[in-house]
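To fix ideas, we give here one paired sequence and structure record:
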Amino acid sequence: MLRLICIKLPQELKHRASSLTHGHFFSTSSVKPIAELPNSKNPQFVTVSFLQNSCGLSLESAISASEKLNIENPKNPNSVLDLFRTHGLTQTHIRNLISSRPLLLLADFENTLKPNMELFKSLGFSCPSLVKMLCKDPRVLESDAYTLVEFFRAHGFSDEQISTLTMKRPPFYFYDAQKIFKPKLDFFKSLGLSDLEIAKLLSARPAILTRSLEKQIIPCV
């Protein structure tokens, strides 16, 4: 009844490794081991040291990541790392995750990061599947995940279907569900589809939810 074509939305990530410490630029040809760098109260030095020693980043990666955050107090970053380990992430997982999204170390631990990790676990994510999903878009840990999960639950999606949606499209957690998703769900209902049928269709083909209702969905019916 519906002729819908999936659309892939490619993403590009760009990383730049350049930094200034004690008035000198680091480069891959003249980088010193962290132990040989002069110890100081320079915030960047503290951040680079933490990223290397606690997160396992190389010096070059730590310097690049330190351009995006400033660790003044290690309490929150240490809590974040402990949470990751509690949920089964290895040091390699942590290194890759922090390299991709350094700002996770400064995320709101009690109100956002910890509840989101527990929520994804409750949806049935195993450690390998959780890591795979987070590698696609680690920002999902900083989202209001509970609101979106409850939205889909209220519209007949099972936790298994929500976890499938999450795995396929982590960026969904940054959409306004009431504005973007609900009109499509209402339209499919107007065609006579039940909540169960809609949930089955959209968990299999979640890209439908991001299309224009007027320009791409209705003309295909």
The beta strands are 20-21, 24-25. Confidence is low (pLDDT under 50) at residues 1-37. The first helix runs from residue 43 to 53. The chain is about 50% helix and 0% strand.
